[in-house]
């Protein structure tokens, strides 16, 4: 097993990784920005290094500062968490070139999946279903209009280098495409340094279903079930559950097999997620993208499979066998995750501030992965996620009931928060019936 691990992230995911590292006897090293010095993950690490000011470019994305921290503390490995540098192939290469262990997939796999057009083409060649779309970037508006004419409106306009729901727009006709193409291209150039644009069929009513994969040290790729992620605002997830209430046993078999083929196509190692769009009522699904990292919503998979995915990541990175038998995976029960964000519950706009009250719910089947405690300040410099409230029960109705109680018991004051939204959602008949899709929040609002 790895002996010392630098966690190149912050907040709840850094705290989460540190918890597993310490349980395994691995020395945990935190890096932090100046404004994060008082957060729990810094105190809970065995050692902590300040890597710069609040601006992520000068701290959590500062590769030189992070590598210097690894060298000064004698770290053997780096875990990037999610976001920041987690899907940066150049950083992964640099880490390994420095003689350190990278806790994630190989840089080539990250590169292959980081470009949405290249990823689509690779998946199609591997027999993974992809939605109708361009096989090369739409070089200009004329090319985009021609592609949309062949695909059929409405179309999705995507930044090829984008991710996390960023850099996307929907065009219902030519006039809208003219606007969206320029908007997405400008955003992509500004945010990702790559203005390449993909045109793809847009499905007005879809479900967002993803499969957790794990590429083992011996070369095998295994699928650890699916997660339903269709409760979204601005194309970003708020709720995840496993298993998906929309997936039948026959569809699950096809979905998981496709995800394994996707991983095998890029010689995948470590944890990753194959995201798909599922057309309601048809059992038809299409590859969306592959996230080459640990996902925010990994706890629901952990609870249903009885695993610690961070431990499995560390074992793969160390060249060790998994803790489980890949040929005898047996999911059980139902898990739901609610993302507790510092944002208002109506428009979902950020609302940072000092946490005056923070009392987490407890009890059977309740888990809270949090990045803050009472007295901390949620700053405007980073994502608004404060905690993940995760519940587990034998059945979906029991899990929903447990989630209702946990939300009511979560005492939180100071920053704006979306707990009132979850109170509303958990009583919404469309959600409780399991028939919802990605437009649910739009109809609720």
- Summing up helix and strand content along with how strands pair, one would put the structural category as alpha+beta
Summed up, the helix count is 15
Largest sheet: 8 strands, antiparallel
Tally of DSSP β-strands:
20
- Spans of 5+ residues with little confidence (pLDDT < 50)? none
Question: What integer value in Å does the Rg equal?
Answer: 21 Å
Indicate the proportion of strand residues. 25-35%
- What is the average per-residue confidence, as pLDDT, rounded to a whole number? 96
- Largest sheet strand order: 13-12-9-10-11-14-19-17
User: What is the first-to-last residue Cα distance?
Assistant: 49 Å
Shape: globular
The share of residues in helices is 25-40%
Write the layout of secondary structure elements.
Layout: E1 4-7, H1 11-23, E2 27-33, H2 40-44, E3 47-52, H3 63-73, E4 77-79, H4 89-97, E5 101-102, H5 107-114, H6 116-125, H7 141-151, E6 155-159, E7 168-171, H8 174-192, E8 197-201, E9 207-215, E10 221-233, E11 236-242, H9 249-265, E12 270-279, E13 284-291, H10 298-305, H11 309-317, E14 334-341, E15 353-354, E16 357-359, E17 366-370, E18 377-378, E19 385-393, H12 396-409, E20 411-413, H13 419-425, H14 429-433, H15 440-444
Parallel strand pairs: 1-2, 1-4, 2-3, 4-5
Antiparallel strand pairs: 6-7, 6-8, 9-10, 9-12, 10-11, 11-14, 12-13, 14-19, 15-18, 16-20, 17-19
Helix pairs in contact: 4-5, 7-8
């Amino acid at each position: 097993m790895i002996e010392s691990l630098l966690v190149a992230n912050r907040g709840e995911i850094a705290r989460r990784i540190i918890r597993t590292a310490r349980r395994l006897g691995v020395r945990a090293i935190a890096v932090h920005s100046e404004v994060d010095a008082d957060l729990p993950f810094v105190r809970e690490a065995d050692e902590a290094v300040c890597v710069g000011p609040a601006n992520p470019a000068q701290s959590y994305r500062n590769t030189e500062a992070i590598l210097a921290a690894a060298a000064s503390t004698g770290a053997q490995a780096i875990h990037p968490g999610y976001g920041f540098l987690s899907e940066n192939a150049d950083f992964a290469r640099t880490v390994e070139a420095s003689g350190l262990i990278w806790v994630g997939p190989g840089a080539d796999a990250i590169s292959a999946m980081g470009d949405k057009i290249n990823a689509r083409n690779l998946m199609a060649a591997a027999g993974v279903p992809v939605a109708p779309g361009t096989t090369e970037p739409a070089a200009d508006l004329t090319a985009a209009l021609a592609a949309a004419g062949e695909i059929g409106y409405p179309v999705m306009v995507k930044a090829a280098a984008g991710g996390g729901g960023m850099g996307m727009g929907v065009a219902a006709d030519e006039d809208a495409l003219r606007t969206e193409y320029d908007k997405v291209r400008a955003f992509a150039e500004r945010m990702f340094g790559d203005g390449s644009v993909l045109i793809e069929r847009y499905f007005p009513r879809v479900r967002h279903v993803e499969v957790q994969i794990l590429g083992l040290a011996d070369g095998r790729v295994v699928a650890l079930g699916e997660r339903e992620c269709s409760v979204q605002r601005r194309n970003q997830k708020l709720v995840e559950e496993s298993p998906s209430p929309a997936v039948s046993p026959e569809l699950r078999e096809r979905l998981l097999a496709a995800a394994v083929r996707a991983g095998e196509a890029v010689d995948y190692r470590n944890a990753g997620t194959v995201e798909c769009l599922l057309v309601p009522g048809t059992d038809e699904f299409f590859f969306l993208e592959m996230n080459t990292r640990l996902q925010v919503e990994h706890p629901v998979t952990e609870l249903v499979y009885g695993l610690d995915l961070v431990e499995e990541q560390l074992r793969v990175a160390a060249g060790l066998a998994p803790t489980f038998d890949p040929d005898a995976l047996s999911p059980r029960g139902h898990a739901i995750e609610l993302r507790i964000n510092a944002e208002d519950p109506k428009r979902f706009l950020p609302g940072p501030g000092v946490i005056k009250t923070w009392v987490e719910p407890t009890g059977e089947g309740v888990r809270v992965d949090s990045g803050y405690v009472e007295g901390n300040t949620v700053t405007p410099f980073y994502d608004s996620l404060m905690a993940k409230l995760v519940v587990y029960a034998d059945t979906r109705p029991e899990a929903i009931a447990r989630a209702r109680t946990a939300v009511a018991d979560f005492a939180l004051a100071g920053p704006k928060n979306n707990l009132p939204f979850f109170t509303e959602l958990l009583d919404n008949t469309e959600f409780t019936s399991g028939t919802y899709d990605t437009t649910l929040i739009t109809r609720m609002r």
